[in-house]
Structures are given as structure tokens and as C-alpha cells.
Amino acid sequence: MKALITGANGMLGQELRRIFSDEGYEVVATDRETLDITDRDQVLAFVRECRPDVVINAAAYNLVDKVEEANIYPIAYAINALGPKNLAEAAKAIGVPFVHFSTDYVFAGNKLEGYAEDDATSPLSKYGQTKAEGERFVQEVGGTFYICRLSKLFGRPGLGEGSKVSFVELMLRLAKEKPELSIVDDEVGCPTYAPDLACATFELVTKPYPPGVYHLVNSGEPVTWYAFAQEIFALAGVATPRKPVPSSAFPRAAQLPKAAALLNTKFLPLRSRKEALEHFLT
Description:
The chain has helices at 11-22, 40-50, 73-94, 126-141, 167-177, 194-206, 225-236, 273-281; strands at 2-6, 26-29, 54-57, 98-103, 145-150, 153-154, 181-184, 188-189, 192-193, 212-215, 218-219, 223-224, 242-245, 270-272. By secondary structure, the protein is of the alpha/beta class. The protein has one domain (2-223, 251-281): Rossmann fold, CATH 3.40.50.720. It has a 6-stranded parallel beta sheet with strand order 2-1-3-4-5-10, with helices on both faces. Strands 6-9 form a two-stranded parallel ribbon. α7 (225-236) crosses α8. The chain is globular and about 55 Å long. The relative contact order is 0.16. The mean pLDDT is 97. Keywords: NADP, Oxidoreductase.
């Protein structure tokens, strides 16, 4: 069995490589240098030659505020919308499943009770728009597809140049550098641990589950960034003073959803956020 994984050096990509390899798959790992997912002809030819048993797209342009810039938006759109479309078409052409990852930022963030998988998307930011378009394209292509939404991803930093660190690592670093931390307390979500997301992805395509949209987040009540930081510091034994502040204290170019908790109603519950944090911190 063979798995083609794009964006394979990122935080999620490296965990996907590990789980599929551990389960006996031959992993074909690509990055932007080895496969340009925005080039339809290249993608179709690569997948036709590779003949994988599953195509998994972990590539994304996720510098949320940068996407608001007029010169960056076309780049993000090509990667986040056209890239998944090309990969979905290539997977369908050879009759294999396609997995694509999306985000809670496809929602407006005005449902305190949270969003189910089939709720209508209504992104506030241009980044969210590109991700919503990617979802739409994948569904229009059809075939056996899995759109997996996640939120507040944390895990080991990616291997690629410019890879972002997670909120968990950022908080632990800032706690050492600053006498007091101000942390946003009016944006609610459900964090996702990268290794758990990778394992859930493997389960999705190998059971297999019915095609469609899935919300793959760790179990637990939705949290604000401040509440999440409190959990991190409690487990890590960090005593640095911190205070909750509104998101307006940190102005951003992109408008972000305030209440966009993802409800997992279609997949087995992932382990608790506390257990995931404990695993990450040990």
C-alpha cells in the first residue's frame, strides 16, 4: 500500500508520514519543491505515475493575516483552493480516496453552541475564504473524499523552513521571556493535537468511514486562548502571571471568528485535550 502526502514536512505532515509508515505504507512525501499542487497538469501526471492508494493533502498557506494583502491572496488561493481541486481530480481519476484538511476559520464564529460538520460556511477572513473554496472544489469533484476540519493545531514544529510553532510552544517560550502575559480571552475553539489528528486520518481512510466532512478535534469543552494557556501552564508547572484581554488588544489584519467550536458528531471521540497536552509536554 502507498500513501501520497503533500505538505509532508509540516506539523501535521510529519505526523501523517509517521503513522502511515508505522502501519506499513510506502509513503511518498512531497513538498513545494517536489510537487507544485497549484499546477494541474503536474499534479495529474505525478499521481498517475505514483499510483498511490490514498492521496492526502496537508499543504496549506496559513499565514492568516498575510492573506489579506492583495499580492498574497492569489498565492494563498492557488494553494488553498486550486491545489485541493487538482489533487481531488487526480485521486478521482485513478479511483483512490482523497483527504484534505480545513479549518474552523471557514465559519463566521457566531454560534455559541458550536458548528456541526454540515453547517453552512461563512468565512470572515480572506484566508477563511480560500479554505472554504478549497472545500467546495473538493466536494464538487466528488469521488471518495474526506474533508477534515481542525482548530488550534499543536504538536512538534514542522521540518520545513519557516514552519510555525504552535500556541503551546509559544506560550511556554513567552512565559520564560516576559514578566507577565496578556492572552486573548474572547475567541473560543477546540484545539487539535497533530499526532491524534494523524491517527484519526488513518482510521478514516482504512476502516473506511463514509466520505464527507469531519471535525477532528480533541475531546473537551471549547476554550479561549487564555483558558487554553491556563491548562498548558498548569500541566507544565509555569507560574508566570497572566491576564485575560480582548482580541482588540492585539489588532490583526484578518477578522477572526469569536465562537467557532467544532462539534465532532460523525467520528469516534479523540482523546481528551488534557491527555493530549500531557503527552506533548512529556
